[in-house]
# Entry
Amino acid sequence: MTSVLQKSLAVLVTATLTGCAGAQGAAGGGAGPSAGAGARSGPAAGSGGVAQPPAGEAPGPDVRIPKDPAELAEAVKRTTAALNAGIEDWDKTREPPRDVALYGLHQQRVYRALARDASLTKAVLARLPKPLAAEARDHVHAIARLLAMAHPITAAQRKKLRFADPLPAELLRGHMVAAERRFGVEWEVLAAIMLVETRFGRIRSSSSTGAQGPMQFMPGTWRQYGMGGDVHDAKDAIMAAANYLKASGAPRDYRRAVFAYNRDVRYVDAVLTHAKQIKRDKRSYYAYYNWQIFVLSAKGDVRMTGPR
# Structure
């Protein structure tokens, strides 16, 4: 590689990480769907908030996250079923319907809460059917690994962050599948990296060290692996990421390749866990597409994008 990637926006978001192709930090971005997202900021998203909605109604963006294990297990079951049903009905060449955006946000908030409480997670997993428990365990593990890399940012730093609506989910997946065909790098791994780095291109700010674009490349690394493309173009960036991962050991050794992308084992664990979940159930890719950008403040989570 021509340069080592430093801290990326990725870590400023989701858990407030660092990262990018060839990075020594970690990554982790995340923004929200077009339905109510864009560059608008959302309120803080802790376990407080309004009461749960009636059965069959999508949860509001700030609905209370239950703390009782039985109640939280039911929330996981209900949210997963409703989100999957919405994903199946959604025309993925278009922006997500509001109910899909809301269920995706609620799923994310539930798993962020679980990722911070190992004993609660154990109690909830014991109440879930085995397949759903495996899925929930992976979500919690990946988020916990990213949160372990997190650090709070100030209000002034938050104001400097820039966001935009992502390209349609199916268009992005098409670019990833094309990159897989060309370089042999699994599209699910590319999707997991894009999820962690910029929430599928929703983060438009460059990192503090100059990493750019939806896959967060440093200029020197881009010159070597970008193949003359535009670092801010999703198609070019995804293809370059596959090129870089291939040169770094994929598909023979994904741990080595992803570690080259961002040199933190927690980042590697999170990316490969998310990729495993997408392989287990392709609907997870579309669920992740609806996960929002969160940053940490001195007082806790602040949601930067998503339905209001």
Q: What stands out?
A: Residues 69 and 124 are 5 Å apart (CA to CA). The chain has twelve helices and two strands.
